Amino acid sequence: MVNGKTQPLGAAFTNIFTANLASSLGDGIVRTALPLLAARLTTDPFLISLIAALALLPWLFFAIPAGILIDRIDRRRALALAQAVRTTLAVLVFVLVLTGTLTIWWLYLVVFVYGVFETVYDGAIRAVVPSIVGRPNLPRANSRIEAGELVVQNFLSGPLTSALFAVSVLIPVGINGLVFALAGALALLLPKAASGTQFTAATETEPRIAWYRQFVDGFRFIMANKQLRTLWFFSTFCGIVSSAALASFVLFVLDTLAVPEPLFGVFLLTGAIGGLAGAVFTSRLKARLGTGLTMAIATTVSGLFILTTGLLPVVWAAGISFALSSGAITVWNILVMSLRQSIIPGRLLGRVHGTWRTLLWGTMPLGSLIGGLIARVDLVLPFIIFGALEVAASLVFFRFLMTLPNPEDVDNGDEPLLVGGQPLA
């Protein structure tokens, strides 16, 4: 903000925002269409469940290699590479469906490879944003990206894909390929600042380190920074308990809340609305309360309303609780991303982001497994147990979270972004 006026985020951000909207539409189509395709190929619940497992598995094994790649090549090309592969996968599925040769095994291969290059895309776009947006504007920029993803994936992709799928499988699959290709083309049109090469210019005279020796760079950086280290472990714990609480959410909604199956998607919109509200109000909350206090309140509220869902298992209360917990999680996600982007030097963004995701997302299936086992006793128990655990952890770490700085107050050693020869505030 300059002279009381909010700074525009700039043409480069508009480009990456538009590209991400296109990519989000493709992601939403994939997440809706692939389970529907699997259900047409097999009625075995275990074989269908492997779709979700294979979608998450690449984060455990490829997030760090993807981060190394992102830090070594032009990040615009990394984005374009990811979208080129995903476009190719869409074309492959289109041809297999058209020729009647699609099998569940082909679908497994597509899901896994798609997930591998999702790690590249996710890491690259998170690294590009702080290259083109000043630190004070990171929460606002990330809020817009988060809001765009929520709207496209929850309000547009799902209903659109379901409707088109009923007409012809080829239509959503074809659109999927087109939007990924569009996102890749837009990535190549980003300015040079988005490449990330400016962060490595100062180290060009240093010996080139072999890529396989960079696997622990992200881990070393996180462990050497007390704030980031504590935040990493706390975030991972919250991720595990959240995934445990929501492991049997669909059964809780259908059986305990007695929501008819055709209305399940409508009930899920409560979470999307809450998340969208969180994205809209994050910057205002941060401006009024500061990053640290806002994050401390957000994680406490998230756990509190997960707990409330189990304590008051009726439709209206569960809908309100789901909306509020989703909104709080969105606020947390935006601010923790903005803070990481400001703390981590640009040359390390890919590796640190990949390391962060490996532990955080790699352990969430464990939470789902534990939550599923507890849900066998009673479907409300995971909400009560893990909601209470998140509240307890949030209160224990409340004082620590309050000390977290605003992104604009962090100096990570990178040169400030310049516009017209002046620092970009």
Describe this structure in words.
With 425 residues, the chain is an all-alpha fold. The chain folds into two domains: 10-199, MFS general substrate transporter like domains (Growth Hormone, Chain: A, Up-down Bundle), CATH 1.20.1250; 214-407, MFS general substrate transporter like domains (Growth Hormone, Chain: A), CATH 1.20.1250.20. Helix content is 77%, strand content 1%. The protein has a two-stranded antiparallel sheet with strand order 1-2. Helix 5 (138-167) crosses helix 13 (315-343) and helix 11 (264-289) packs across helix 13. It is globular. The chain starts with 10 loop residues before the first helix and ends with a strand. Residues 418-425 have low confidence and may be disordered.
Write the layout of secondary structure elements.
Blueprint: H1 11-41, H2 45-72, H3 75-99, H4 104-132, H5 138-167, H6 170-188, H7 197-200, H8 217-224, H9 226-245, H10 249-256, H11 264-289, H12 291-311, H13 315-343, H14 349-375, H15 381-396, H16 398-402, E1 418-419, E2 422-423
Antiparallel strand pairs: 1-2
